[in-house]
Amino acid sequence: MNIAILGSTGSIGKSTLEVIRQNIDSFSINLVSANTNHELLLDQCEEFSPKYSFLHDESSRRLFEENANKRGIKTSLIHSMDDLEKAIGSAETDIVVAGMVGISGLIPVTSAVKSGKKILLANKESYIVAGEYLNKLSKENGASIFPIDSEHSAIHQCLNSTKNTSDVSRIILTGSGGPFLDKPIIDFASITPQQAINHPVWNMGKKISVDSSTMMNKGLEVIEARWLFDISDIEVLIHPEGIIHSLVEYKDNSLLAQLSVPDMKIPIAYGLGFPGRINSGSKKLNLNDLGSLNFMEPDLDKFPCLGLAIELLEEGGTSFSVLNAANEICVQAFLDERIGYQDIYEIILKVLDRIEIKTVQSLDQVFESDRDSRTETLSIINQL
Q: Most buried one in 7, 133, 302, 311, CB count within 10 A?
């Protein structure tokens, strides 16, 4: 199977390549892409010899080409988004791993769907803002959208025993609660970016680590689960140990859960190998060492971003684009120390009040809502 990895230098991309190393006789790399990290991309090209590579940043492309020639790397560097989409949609690509961050992933994900590919989706933003549209497109083109984040992979595994989702009464998404689960809300005003990116369970990028700390990440996952599984009864449960990655309750009141060590290689291996199983290269879960597992309801006063995302399930339409765009801008502003931690929620709420929510009928509408929301968010931040 030939694989295109979008975002190969990020955490998802690197984990995917680790899984492929464990199963090198079953997979080959056709395409790798990154934003600016030309040095790691060169190393990946040298090891896996993909046919194509792509860098979003033009100056990084020049550095890549200079060093590729010196090192004798034969991988062809793609220079435009159009050529990237052609490589994604070509017959040489069987599986597309969407590991990039942000709504910029929507265009290549859409190209993969239109080309009828199997998409392993970690780029939750594209599905959150355009899930209904991508589902329709997937049915029309025979594509499959397969989640590879830990929670939605767990749900997929728990649902794999039934052919009828009407047998399901609810989905329960678990979350660790992030670094501030036990921090008093009175101390939230003094939270620093360094504290917010220090996740107790997962090793992730800065943006998603902040989202986890506010539990916005879990709210976005609720929206994503709604589109992935066509089930509307979705709850969130705090599980600090991060061992049970999600649960599915059936109408006979039985619960199925997926357990594993917190390692992204496991859901990635599940996606690559499905409907079979392949070696993930992760550690085994030793139940004797666990001691106990703990669960609690999320405190929506401490984590209002989670409650806001859940409320928007009723609103629908471009509200998800507004939420995602405003959150991205706010998180970056917080990381840049331009706003405080609690400002993230307050600003998002203001943007949602000011931007008109519409029914999603095209990708242009999604991108328009995204642009307007980013402009409005930056305007509010600049006025602070």
A: 7
In this structure, the number of other CB atoms found within 10 A of the CB of residue 289 comes to 6
Structurally, how many domains does the chain consist of?
2
Q: Which residue has the tokens 């620093």?
A: 192
Report which of 85, 357, 294, 316 is spatially closest to residue 223, judged by C-alpha positions. Answer: 316
- Record the tokens describing residue 10, joined without a space: 């990020």
Predicted TM-score (pTM) of the model is 0.91
214 and 329 inside one domain: yes
CATH number of the domain where residue 68 is located: 3.40.50.720
Assigned domain for 280 exists: no
Sort residue 220 into left (φ over 0), alpha (ψ -120 to 50) or beta: alpha
Q: How many CB atoms lie within 10 A of CB 81?
A: 14
**Run of H or E including 314:** helix 304-315
How do the pLDDT tens digits run along the chain, 384 residues long? 999 999 999 989 999 999 999 999 999 999 999 999 999 999 999 999 999 999 999 999 999 999 999 999 999 999 999 999 999 999 999 999 999 887 888 999 999 999 999 999 998 888 899 988 899 999 999 999 999 999 999 999 999 877 778 899 999 999 999 999 999 999 999 999 999 998 877 767 788 899 999 999 999 999 999 999 989 899 999 999 999 999 999 999 999 999 999 999 999 999 999 999 999 999 999 999 888 999 999 999 999 999 999 999 999 999 999 999 999 999 999 999 999 999 999 999 999 999 999 988 889 999 999 999 999 999 999 998
Q: Which of 113, 129, 147 is the last residue of a domain?
A: 147
Q: How many CA atoms lie within 13 A of 127 on its CB side?
A: 29
